[in-house]
């Protein structure tokens, strides 16, 4: 585990040790000094285990041999063993607190690392108040003090988190991390570190490799079943690590390291589920650099790929970046750094962008935390600025390492990896408190089919936010099944447009406001009419002011699609038809329906469509498609259509 703060390593303390070798005021025991001298010799040769053995002998011979305790503390400090180092430094202070008051910094740092925050607070205050800090400007004591004060406060004011181990179907005595959850929460993909040689018992990093595994949720047991290696050609003898799965489960971006065709130490790769099988992984050459690129997270609309990278142009050792991509994962622009609000001069990793498109979760060693990597969240405002990151708090964050957090679409359950209380990383889940929930999202799924033959169709789909006109998702349905699945934030109204060459485009709208159970999908199957004379399509996303023929701004997204469709089919001639409900007189509704049809006709001409290809007509309420006795029926009858007149 990498250490956060820079300490004086054992060689910086040689002046003390040389003095002790010849003349110590803390011991006269020659045998203890002899063992001490052997320990120093072993230390110079980097034989730390032998040095520890000899220093233990020296301490056994004289428990008050201060320099021996100090040497022991420095060796353990160098080895990154914070608890042993803390205990040894504490013994130095116990023997003589005035020997070197600056050692209080190391006591503060090590007690912080082992979760003794109130003790760390005492020592860092002692250092800042009693030591000439100008002599120790290379000690990052101001930052350490900020972190200790934060951790002490967070520990004393725990959040309502109850992390639960996800179970033996997923977690083993190896490391499990980087979970990805399907939108229906039934498929879990994650990374497991396993021995290169299955018969080896070594856990040394050089003898391990990363592979991707998958587990499925079992309704009977309420748990994920025993995981299996992910199917396809993804896993190799090298490392396949951090990954993410798209909302529809058909795109996977993952990290692979040290591959012959790689651009850097670790690169991002992409593969697609087509015809029930995963394609061979392809290097994302337009995104990867000669540096380390990893930790991918796809936005729910598929437009952006977030990732961590050690590339040039960042603020720290690793930063979080994002890049706009096309459907094949190719970069459309240069990758952009998320900026200093998110990234620090230290390390930021494991970004996860929630399906709401605005809430980012990530791990950091640079923002005030509890010890190692902590988990944070930040929200994107309407001006494109990220809010100040918020630490998710204790007990989710601990003195251990927490990272790779994901949140389900509903925004009420999260998963993350932690090694708290154990050597290996496991995957945990917890219920998210209300104050840190993202905007809930649900998923819309269905299929596109030929209205005449019922044959499933591959078609292009676009979803828009009706109020803002913002394009939310652009996708292509499955080539064989015609199926699609998209994740969308709730509490919005959406327009859904589908088109395929040789067919009339289909216009639909639906509302995700006041959804009682976001876990249940919104089902929407789309029929496409073959492009033939006399066929009519309802323009469901054309809106008028009440009792008026004034087009509302919410109509412009759909009108643009009509313009594009007419430009793509230059021989097509259509009639715009206006229809009303039966409220009011026939004469009144005749005029209203005709004026509404004319408004669309005029708009199309203003966008360059030849008027000779267009006509319009008002039908009042003479051709209802629903019962005018109900409000729902009357709403369906108030509509705008276009009818194919000819296509020659």
Folded structure, characterized:
The strands form eight sheets. Strands 2, 3, 4, 5 and 6 form a five-stranded antiparallel β-sheet that branches. Strands 7, 8, 9, 10 and 11 form a five-stranded antiparallel β-sheet that branches. A four-stranded antiparallel β-sheet has the order 1-22-21-20, with no helix packed on it. It folds into three domains: about 10-155, Tetratricopeptide repeat domain (Serine Threonine Protein Phosphatase 5, Tetratricopeptide repeat, Alpha Horseshoe), CATH 1.25.40; about 170-435, Neuraminidase; about 445-645, 2-Layer Sandwich (60s Ribosomal Protein L30, Chain: A), CATH 3.30.1330. With about 650 residues, it is α+β, with helices and mostly antiparallel strands. Residues about 1-15 have low confidence and may be disordered. The chain contains eleven helices and 34 strands.
Key structural traits:
alpha+beta; Serine Threonine Protein Phosphatase 5, Tetratricopeptide repeat; 34 strands; 29% strand; elongated; disordered N terminus
Summary, kept brief:
The chain is an alpha+beta fold and 648 residues long. It folds into three domains: 10-156, Alpha Horseshoe (Serine Threonine Protein Phosphatase 5, Tetratricopeptide repeat), CATH 1.25.40.10; 170-436, Neuraminidase; 446-647, 60s Ribosomal Protein L30, Chain: A (2-Layer Sandwich).
């Amino acid at each position: 585990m990498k250490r956060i703060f820079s300490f004086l390593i054992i060689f910086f303390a040689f002046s003390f040790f040389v003095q002790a070798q010849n003349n110590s005021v803390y011991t006269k025991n020659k045998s203890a000094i002899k063992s001490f001298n052997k320990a120093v010799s072993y230390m110079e040769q980097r034989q730390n285990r032998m040095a520890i053995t000899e220093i233990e002998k020296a301490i056994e011979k004289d428990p008050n041999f201060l320099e021996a305790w100090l040497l022991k503390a420095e060796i353990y400090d160098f080895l990154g063993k914070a608890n042993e180092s803390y205990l040894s430094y504490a013994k130095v202070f116990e023997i003589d607190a005035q020997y070197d008051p600056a050692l209080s910094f190391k006591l503060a740092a090590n007690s912080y690392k082992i979760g003794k925050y109130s003790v760390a607070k005492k020592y860092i205050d002692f250092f800042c108040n009693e030591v000439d800090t100008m002599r120790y400007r290379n000690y990052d004591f101001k930052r350490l003090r900020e972190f200790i004060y934060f951790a002490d406060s967070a520990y004393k004011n725990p959040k309502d988190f109850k992390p639960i181990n996800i179970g033996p179907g997923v977690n083993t005595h190896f490391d499990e991390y980087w979970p990805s959850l399907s939108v229906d929460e039934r498929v879990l993909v994650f990374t497991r570190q396993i021995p290169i040689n299955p018969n080896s018992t070594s856990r040394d990093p050089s003898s391990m490799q990363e592979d991707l595994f998958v587990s499925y949720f079992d309704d009977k047991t309420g748990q994920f079943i025993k995981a299996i290696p992910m199917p396809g050609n993804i896993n190799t003898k090298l490392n396949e690590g951090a990954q993410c799965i798209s909302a529809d489960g058909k795109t996977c971006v993952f990290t692979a390291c040290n591959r012959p065709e790689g651009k850097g130490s670790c690169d991002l790769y992409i593969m697609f589920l087509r015809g029930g099988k995963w394609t061979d992984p392809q290097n994302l050459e337009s995104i990867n650099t000669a540096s380390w690129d990893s930790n991918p997270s796809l936005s729910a609309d598929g437009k952006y790929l977030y990732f961590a990278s050690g590339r040039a142009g960042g603020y720290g050792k690793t930063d979080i970046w994002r890049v706009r991509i096309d459907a094949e994962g190719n970069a459309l622009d240069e990758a952009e750094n998320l900026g200093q609000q998110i990234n620090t001069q230290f390390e930021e990793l494991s970004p996860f962008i929630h399906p709401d498109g605005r809430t980012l979760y990530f791990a950091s060693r640079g923002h005030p935390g509890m010890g190692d990597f902590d988990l944070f969240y930040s929200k994107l405002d309407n001006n494109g600025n990220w809010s100040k990151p918020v630490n998710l708090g204790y007990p989710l964050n601990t003195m251990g390492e927490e990272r790779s957090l994901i949140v389900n679409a509903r925004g009420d359950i999260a998963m993350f990896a932690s090694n708290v209380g154990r050597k290996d990383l496991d995957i945990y889940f917890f219920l998210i408190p209300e104050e840190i929930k993202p905007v809930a999202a649900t998923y819309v799924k269905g299929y596109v089919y030929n209205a005449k033959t019922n044959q499933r169709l591959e078609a292009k789909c676009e979803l828009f936010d009706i109020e803002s006109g913002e394009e939310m998702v652009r996708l292509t349905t499955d080539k064989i099944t015609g199926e699609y699945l998209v994740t969308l934030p709730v509490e919005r109204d959406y327009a859904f447009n589908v088109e395929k060459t040789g067919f009339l485009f289909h216009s639909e709208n639906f509302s995700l406001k006041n959804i009682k159970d976001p876990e249940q999908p919104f089902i929407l199957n789309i029929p496409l009419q073959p492009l033939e004379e006399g066929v009519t399509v309802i323009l469901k996303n054309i809106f008028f002011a009440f009792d008026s023929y004034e087009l509302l701004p919410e109509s412009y997204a759909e009108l643009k699609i009509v313009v594009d469709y007419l430009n793509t089919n230059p021989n097509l001639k259509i009639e715009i038809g206006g229809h009303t409900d039966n409220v009011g007189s026939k004469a009144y509704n005749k005029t209203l329906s005709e004026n509404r049809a004319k408004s669309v006709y005029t708009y199309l001409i203003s966008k360059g469509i030849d008027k000779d290809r267009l006509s319009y007509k008002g039908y009042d309420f003479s051709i209802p498609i629903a019962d005018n006795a109900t409000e729902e029926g009357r709403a369906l009858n108030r509509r705008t259509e276009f009818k194919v007149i000819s296509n020659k």
